[in-house]
Design a protein that fits this description.
Elements (H helix, E strand, L loop, with lengths): L3 E5 L2 E2 L5 E4 L5 E4 L7 E9 L3 E11 L12 H4 L9 H18 L23 E6 L4 E4 L6 E3 L8 H7 L10 E7 L12 E5 L2 E5 L3 E7 L9 E4 L2 E4 L8 H15 L6 E5 L5 H7 L4 E6 L2 H13 L5 E5 L14 E4 L8 H10 L3 E6 L2 H10 L3 E9 L9 E8 L5
Parallel strand pairs: 4-6, 16-17, 16-19, 17-18, 19-20
Antiparallel strand pairs: 1-5, 2-3, 3-4, 5-6, 7-8, 7-10, 8-9, 10-13, 11-12, 12-13, 14-15, 20-22, 21-22
């Protein structure tokens, strides 16, 4: 027989779940709970050090609780915070970064700025991957490959939602939809939603944007472009799905790097070079390092597209890259979620830049790495809400080499 308890939610876990204490003091994580809720819950997993539970009844609702505005919110798993106010969500994200820096990073007074955000809670995603089972089109359910049928998603741009209505679900291949600004010569259309097929993809046109629809698992075969602060980037590789929030992040990284024409910059894990170019335009020389050959090819094309011959890219494993005589004044590190590898930490310490700008999508691994970067002190840190209504958070911080502290 399942165990049921009455609990009071006092905070949130890293995945957005509400956190409470059972009578024996054990932490219990409750998806869909809000700080201040009093709930009747049922245990679904009971482990020695923690438990997970589902809500049976809301006995006393939190003042931060709101009615979810998506009919598949509970099943889909794409959002974590549609049941709380956006103000509470921003508070949660700032607190999560502060807690990680203190508890994991050993930073006594992190002084995290208020979370930077665009104010646009919905309609910000310029890309979506939808799955089908031959009958229904939608997203995977949380921790499952079961299809949750949808006809629109509140996180997606309106033009993508309109395009979803045009898709035939009678296939077992996934569909990728990418919305980009319409170029000056982009097959101008007088209608609101006219399809055109090119290079194996299907394009739909709205007055200002173009939606590329691709089926299957292969990479996009046609050039797509996105603009950011007057710069144009090819996005055949990875690019931020929230362009407006990405601009806030890049502007903060540029501010922290504070490059001058007499200085050099190295960007580790540079991808298609968007951050390298955005920050490196202020430097005398910049170099992006990335192990993916396709990304490096795209990065070099992005440098040519934006007429930045002083910025170069090299294809190499960060840990094995031979820097030669280059000793950068600033390094940007934007690693995957798992954070910096030991070899990358060692490479940074060998190069010993005066400034290190660390961009992270996981406060826990960021905080862990701060302890490993011996000789560097945290100067500034901020969070950017790249993915509203989800528990994900993007961080950007500035570290200064001891002796270079101003």
């Amino acid at each position: 027989m399942s165990q049921e308890y009455v609990v009071a939610i006092t905070g949130y876990g890293s995945g957005g779940e509400g956190v409470a204490r059972l009578p024996d003091g054990k932490a219990v994580f409750v998806p869909g709970a809000a700080r201040g809720d009093v709930l009747e819950v049922r245990l679904v997993k009971n482990q020695p050090r923690s438990a997970r539970a589902e809500i049976v009844r809301v006995l006393e609702p939190s003042p931060h609780r709101i009615e979810p505005d998506c009919p598949v919110y509970q099943e889909c798993g794409g959002c974590d915070f549609r049941h709380i106010t956006y103000e509470e969500e921003l508070r949660v994200k700032k607190q999560r970064l502060n807690d990680a820096l203190q508890r994991v990073g050993g930073v006594s007074h992190p002084n995290v700025e208020d979370v930077l955000h665009t104010g646009q809670v919905d309609g910000y995603r310029n890309k979506a991957v939808l799955h089908t089972d031959g009958v229904s089109l939608g997203f995977y359910a949380a921790k499952s490959h079961s299809i949750i049928p949808i006809d629109r998603c509140p996180l997606l741009k309106d033009d993508i939602n309109e395009t979803i209505k045009e898709i035939d679900p009678k296939t077992t291949e996934p569909y990728t939809l990418q919305s980009t600004p319409k170029g000056g010569d982009s097959r101008k259309s007088g209608g609101n939603h006219n399809p055109d097929t090119t290079c194996g993809n299907c394009n739909f046109h709205t007055p200002d944007r173009e939606i590329t629809l691709r089926s299957g698992h292969n990479g996009l075969r046609m050039p797509l472009e996105e603009t950011l602060d007057g710069m144009v980037f090819g996005i055949s590789g990875f690019f931020q799905v929230n362009t407006d929030a990405a601009l806030l992040l890049y502007q903060k990284a540029r501010l922290y790097a504070a490059m001058s024409k007499s200085e050099s910059l190295v960007d580790l894990y540079c991808g298609v070079g968007s951050l390298t170019l955005f920050v490196g335009r202020d430097a005398g020389y910049a170099l992006g390092v990335e192990s993916n050959p396709a990304s490096i090819e795209a990065a070099r094309e992005n440098a040519r597209r934006n007429d930045m011959p002083h910025i170069e890219f090299t294809c190499a494993d960060v840990t094995k890259w031979d820097s030669g005589a280059l000793r950068p004044d600033c390094i940007i590190a934007d690693p995957p979620r798992k954070g910096l590898s030991p070899g990358t930490v060692q490479k940074i310490l060998e190069l010993a830049p005066e400034r290190l700008v660390y961009v992270s999508c996981d406060p826990a691994t960021l905080s862990r790495d701060l302890r490993l970067l011996d000789g560097y002190a945290l100067r500034d840190v901020c969070a950017v809400d790249m993915f509203p209504r989800t528990a994900n958070i993007e961080c950007c911080c500035l570290l200064l080499r001891e002796g270079a502290l101003g």
